Amino acid sequence: MKLCECGCGTSIPNINKKGKSAKFVHGHNNRGIVWPKEIRDKVSSSLRGWYKQNKNSLQYKNRLIKIGNGNRGKVVSDTTKEKLKGRIPWNKGVIGFMAGEQNSNWKGGKALMNGYWFIRIDRGVYKKRSRIEMETYLGKELSSHDIVHHINGDKADDRIENLQLMTRKEHINLHHH
């Protein structure tokens, strides 16, 4: 075993995975090296030159057109490019595709979250089942200030005999005093 030559102090085996004499831990070979300005400028200018030269290349043009990953790197004809320019995906504007009852994970519009049962009212809108039960029992819609308290403490038990309607203040006093 010897130490990494970057100066980090990490011990490394004498021979790396390729069977060569190891000098650095993987990724430490450029660590702490500040390349001279002339080398940095040379690399930057060569990259700039490559982009200027290849602006008309097929590789550069394909990046600007919407081409799927399966077709990247392939030569695409001009007629195909024209077809792809105005292409609309098959699911654009499709509302509710695989949503609700069409989804294989559909559980009847019921969901158990944080111990409470929620019922699906509308697409993306859920309401606590305890509130629905209380509204049905009273025959009126509850306000946001009304709290439905579970008498036995079981949040999933939404039987009407286990539910009690309270104001927010009464509910706080019940639990915190």
Q: Can you give a write-up of this model?
A:
The protein has 177 residues and is α+β, with helices and mostly antiparallel strands. Among the domains are: 1-32, no CATH class; 108-176, no CATH class. The protein is built from five helices and seven strands. Strands 3-4-5 form a three-stranded antiparallel sheet. Strands 1-2 form a two-stranded antiparallel sheet. It is elongated, with a radius of gyration of 33 Å. 3% of the residues are buried.
Short description:
The protein is α+β, with helices and mostly antiparallel strands and 177 residues long. It is built from 5 helices and 7 strands, in the order E-E-H-H-H-E-E-E-H-E-E-H.
Descriptive key words:
7 strands; three-stranded antiparallel beta sheet; about 180 residues; elongated; single chain; alpha+beta; two-stranded antiparallel ribbon
SSE topology:
Elements: E1 2-3, E2 11-12, H1 37-53, H2 58-64, H3 78-85, E3 110-113, E4 116-122, E5 125-128, H4 129-138, E6 146-150, E7 163-167, H5 168-176
Antiparallel strand pairs: 1-2, 3-4, 4-5, 6-7
Span between N and C termini?
67 Å
Major sheet, described briefly?
Answer: 3 strands, antiparallel
Q: Output the helix-strand order.
A: EEHHHEEEHEEH
Low-confidence stretches: none
Number of strands: 7
Rg is: 33 Å
Output the strand order for the largest sheet: 3-4-5
Helix share, percent = 25-40%
Number of helices: 5
Gross morphology is elongated
Average of pLDDT: 80
Strand % is 15-25%
Structural class by SSE content = alpha+beta
